[in-house]
Amino acid sequence: MTTAYRPRRDNLWFARTRNYTIFVLRELTSVFVAWSIVFLLMFLDAVVGGSLPEFAALAGQPWMIAINVVALAATSFHAITFLNLAPKATVVRLDGWRVPAWMIQGGNHSLWLLVSAVIAYFVLRSP
Questions:
Q1: What is the crossing angle of helices 52-59 and 30-49, to 10°?
Q2: Most buried residue, 17, 19, 55, 76, by CB count within 10 Å?
Q3: H or E segment and range at residue 98
């Protein structure tokens, strides 16, 4: 019995082109997006459960701050690449005119910045 020839698989196939590398990095950032959700749920549980001082002590640990800084960067990268893909996934037509990709991306990024600014206003304002 003979076996079929199978060429050796290249484990770094994604490193050959920039688009593949960004694709793989974007997929890997999903782990940090999931961590951000878990951290937010831990925060909400601490607020509801009355254990906010213990959560604040945990969140203030240097290793936890480092993880959250990396998670912020990874989540930002994930969001930016997601918003940049929107014109490829959605074709918007107005009276037969196709809306250019830069307008869709600009609208997405502008709305993201606006929502972030509103959230920052409410979080950072003085009591």
A1: 150
A2: 55
A3: strand 97-98
- Sequence length of the chain is 127
For 93, phi and psi rounded to 5 degrees?
-125, 135
Element (H, E) at 97: strand 97-98
Cα separation, 125 vs 105, whole angstroms:
30
Q: Are 31 and 71 in contact (CB under 8 A)?
A: no
CA–CA gap between residue 22 and residue 103 (Å, rounded): 22
- What is the pTM (predicted TM-score) of this model? 0.76
Q: Token digits for 6?
A: 């199978």
pLDDT tens sequence across 77-94? 999 988 988 888 888 888
Residue owning tokens 């994604």 = 14
